[in-house]
Amino acid sequence: MENGQEWNIGQLLGTSSAYWRSSTVHAAVKLEIFSVIGDGQLTVEDISDSVGGKPRSVAMLLNGITAMGLLEHENNSYRNTDFSRSCLVKGAPGYIGYIIMHHFHLVDGWAQLHEAVLHGAPVETRSHGEDIERESFQLGMFNLAMAIAPTIAAAIDLEGRRHLLDLGGGPGTHAIHFCLANPMLKATIYDRETTAPFAKKTTEGFGVADRIAFVAGDFNADPLGGPFDVAWLSQILHSNSFEECQVLIEKTVKALEPGGLILIHDFFLNDTLDGPLFPALFSMNMLLSNHGRSYSAKEVRDMLRQAGARDIHRVSFQAPNDSAILCGTV
Fold this sequence. Notes:
By secondary structure, this protein is of the alpha/beta class. The chain folds into 2 domains: 9-95, Winged helix-like DNA-binding domain superfamily/Winged helix DNA-binding domain (Arc Repressor Mutant, subunit A); 144-329, Vaccinia Virus protein VP39 (Rossmann fold), CATH 3.40.50. The chain is 46% helix and 19% strand. Strands 4, 5, 6, 7, 8, 9, 10 and 11 form an 8-stranded mixed beta sheet that branches. The radius of gyration is 22 Å and the shape is globular.
């Protein structure tokens, strides 16, 4: 429960066993149950044959998913709900299965959280395959960004800006929507070489590949190029230590022209670092895999000031998961 709300035994036990629900969803997406059913209405035997499973255990999974309200069951056959059809069937415009698989790949680490807390360092987890994990992460980030990128692009005035740096931009979802909202803008996505195929696919898919370049590099170690007149840092600070964040912000500011904007989008904690809930939990997700954490808006404001940014303010935007945007001028 959030701060200030009373707990009871039922809520505590529900929280303790909440992974039962998430594991059920993970299994269904991993086995592509929703995609197999698609627009149809299939029996247990039909679905079992398609996924290569045993009817008895597949029926248990189907009934669990139905109990959660993600399938409908009638006359020994199952069909997708409208919601499931829209976001859990591969090929649907709103498909979010990639981010669900990314969450599935994190489960081993979360089961070792106590070890990470004791040692203050990431834990070793089993590999699901480097290419599979990369695809789930990159396209999962695309899933999440697609839900908010158009709103963000509409909320930020980039009139007169010509060249945007999308630092750690992955598949380039935000760069794409900034360019769509600003016809005179071009962008550079700066990320690791392994990200390039995803950026190429998405920029071509949105018809802006001629306005968005991709530069491969490690932004913590390599030059950023430029100059740019706006820099967008979305969901990358939390993967870095406090010291790395300060250096990265300073490096970004130096890559901007005078009067340029630096925009930082992330999950921000409150000043006492004990809320809101999602950023507080997300810090532990970072503990399991790297040396980053969630930062407070105050911490990031101070980093920006130390880097020489001025007129630092919060953009009028609030995402459902407590992500927010800070803007500074150099």
